[in-house]
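User: Show me a protein chain along with its predicted structure.
Assistant: Here is one chain, sequence first, then structure tokens.
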Amino acid sequence: YNQSLSGVYGEFGKGADATIFYIQTALEPDDLDKLTLISDIPGSNKWSVRDLFQRDVDNERVTKSLIPYFKNNNQLKFFNPLTLTIVPGSISTSNIVDAVPLIHTIDETIDDYHCLVLELPGIYKFSYVKDHPEMSHLEWDDTKVKIVAVDGQHRLSALKRLKQEIETTGEDVSGFSNWKIPAVVFSVRTEVEMEQEFRVLDVIRSIFKYINTSAQTPSITRQILLDDDSVLNICTQELLEYSHENDILEINDRA
């Protein structure tokens, strides 16, 4: 294995004789080089329509919204973890993860620690110290599989571009080099022979669909209350605040 990440191991979402397992981590800026956008995977443009779970990156949004937000020293920055997963490194190797793999948890001694290991030999390996999931590692061969964003590809694209810009100019006005970027990398396995075989990409597509269709956009009213960039919306907030202050006064004190 030529790539690795450390973090906290967990399992979640068991169903249909399969289990999602993951590592939650904090990425260093240099770790961004280990991550790939789905559009950058060779041959992904030839994937079946049903396998294309990601939409194209909106470069205008990245350029005009996300990068300025990351670079703005007058704003606090935070976002929910990037949701990442393991996919074929190219269309020619897609057969290695076509079906949800049968992976058993095995005991292994690593650096004198009693570890539990889940491995697709030669492709990727999750390991963690027994009873100490916070001591866990993910290793993989990036010539066979890539780590891509299921949720957060625009943030990932912006972070990669910001890193490249700082490396080119040498100007790190946002303190980016010290950031620890929250992320979760998941995969899926089965422990039994499945009656109905289904593919890893089907699982990824299902999770992408759930994440991106279950979230509700704030109402227009709520968006106005949350928007601190539009002068009109700020004036509306001030007017509502003044009105609210009047509402909570005792009747005899109201203007």
